TrEMBL record:
The chain crosses the membrane at residues 55-75, 82-103, 123-152, 159-187, 193-211, 223-247, 267-288. Coiled coil: none annotated. One of its GO terms (biological process) is lipopolysaccharide transport. This is Transport permease protein. GO terms for cellular component: plasma membrane.
Length: 299
C-alpha cells in the first residue's frame, strides 16, 4: 500500500486510518448523515407507530407522574400550572437519558462496523445525539403548545433561558456519553450503570417537585450547594424559566407564595453549569480519543 505524497496530502488525500479527531463530526458530515439515517431506519424497522413513540413515552410518563404526584400528593394545588412545570422537566430528563444511553451504546452497538471497516469513531456517539434531538422535537412542540394554553407567551428571556439550557444539556451529556462509550467498549457493565444514573437523575433534579422544597430541607448545608451545581438541576430550572416561570398563573401567585421565585433567577447558576459541561466534554473527548484505537480489539 502506497503512502500519499505530500502533494497528494496537500490536495486533500489522507493516509488510511488518519482522522481529524474531535473535528470528525464536522469534516465527515456526509458519513454522519448516513449513520443518522441508518439509526432511524433500524430503530423503527417493523414498528407500527414509528416516530409516534416520541409522543407515547413522554405522554405516559406525564400522566403517571401527574396522577401520582399532582393528584394523589396534591402538588398541583401548591404549584400553579403544574402540568407545564412537570412536562418542562420531563423533556429535559428524557433528552438527557436518550443522548446518554444511546451514546454509551454507540460503539458496542455498532461493533460490526467498528471491527470490520474504518470509520471515524466519533461519528457513532454524535449520530446517536442527533437521533435523540430528532425525537426531542415532537416533545418540545407539545411543551410549547401546552405552555401556550396556560397563557405563556414567547419572550427574549424565555429564548435565552431555553438556548442556555439546551447548550449546557447537550455539551454536558455528550461529554458523559463519550466517556461512557469508551468505557463500555471494554466493560459492558457500564451501560447498566448509565440506566441507573438516568433513573436517579430524574429524582435528584427538580422535575417532579419545586426546588424551594429542597432548599427548605437542606438549605445552609454543602448538599444544597451540590444540588444547585448539578448541571441537570440548572438545565431543568432554565426550562422552567423558559416555559413556566412567567406564565400568568405563576406571576399572579407569586405575591401570595414568594417561594415560586427561583433562586438566582432568571438564569441562576447558568455559568457554573456551562463550565461544568465544557469540562465534562473535554474529559470525555480526551478519554474517547485515547481509547478509540482499541475499540476493534475490545469488540
Amino acid at each position: 500500500m502506497t503512502v500519499p505524497t505530500r502533494a497528494e496530502q496537500a490536495q486533500g488525500w489522507r493516509a488510511p486510518g488518519q482522522d481529524a479527531g474531535w473535528l470528525n463530526p464536522i469534516r465527515e458530515r456526509f458519513l454522519l448523515r448516513l449513520l443518522v439515517r441508518k439509526e432511524l431506519r433500524v430503530r423503527y424497522r417493523g414498528s407500527m407507530l414509528g416516530m409516534l413513540w416520541s409522543y407515547v413515552k413522554p405522554a405516559v410518563q406525564f400522566i403517571v407522574f401527574y396522577i401520582a404526584l399532582g393528584v394523589f400528593l396534591q402538588l398541583s394545588k401548591a404549584t400553579p400550572a403544574y402540568a407545564v412545570y412537570l412536562f418542562s422537566g420531563i423533556v429535559v430528563v428524557n433528552l438527557f437519558g436518550e443522548i446518554f444511553g444511546n451514546a454509551t451504546r454507540s460503539i458496542s452497538g455498532n461493533g460490526a462496523l467498528v471491527a470490520k471497516i474504518y470509520l471515524p469513531s466519533q461519528l457513532f456517539p454524535w449520530s446517536s445525539m442527533i437521533v435523540a434531538l430528532v425525537h426531542f422535537v415532537p416533545q418540545l412542540l407539545v411543551l410549547v403548545v401546552g405552555a401556550l394554553l396556560f397563557g405563556w407567551l414567547p419572550s427574549p428571556t424565555a429564548l435565552v433561558a431555553f438556548a442556555l439550557g439546551m447548550m449546557i444539556l447537550v455539551i454536558f451529556t455528550m461529554g458523559l456519553g463519550m466517556l461512557t462509550a469508551a468505557l463500555n467498549a471494554a466493560f459492558r457493565d457500564v451501560e447498566n450503570f448509565v440506566d441507573l444514573i438516568v433513573m436517579v437523575a430524574t429524582w435528584l433534579s427538580p422535575v417532579l417537585y419545586r426546588i424551594s422544597m429542597v432548599q427548605e430541607a437542606i438549605d445552609g448545608t454543602i448538599w444544597w450547594w451540590l444540588y444547585q451545581l448539578n448541571p441537570l438541576t440548572i438545565v431543568v430550572e432554565l426550562f422552567h424559566v423558559a416555559f413556566w416561570r412567567f406564565s400568568p398563573e405563576v406571576v399572579e401567585a407569586i405575591p401570595a407564595d414568594p417561594s415560586l421565585v427561583l433562586p438566582g433567577e432568571p438564569f441562576g447558576l447558568w455559568w457554573a453549569g456551562l463550565l461544568i459541561a465544557v469540562a465534562t466534554f473535554v474529559i470525555g473527548t480526551v478519554v474517547f480519543e485515547r481509547s478509540k484505537r482499541r475499540f476493534a480489539q475490545e469488540l
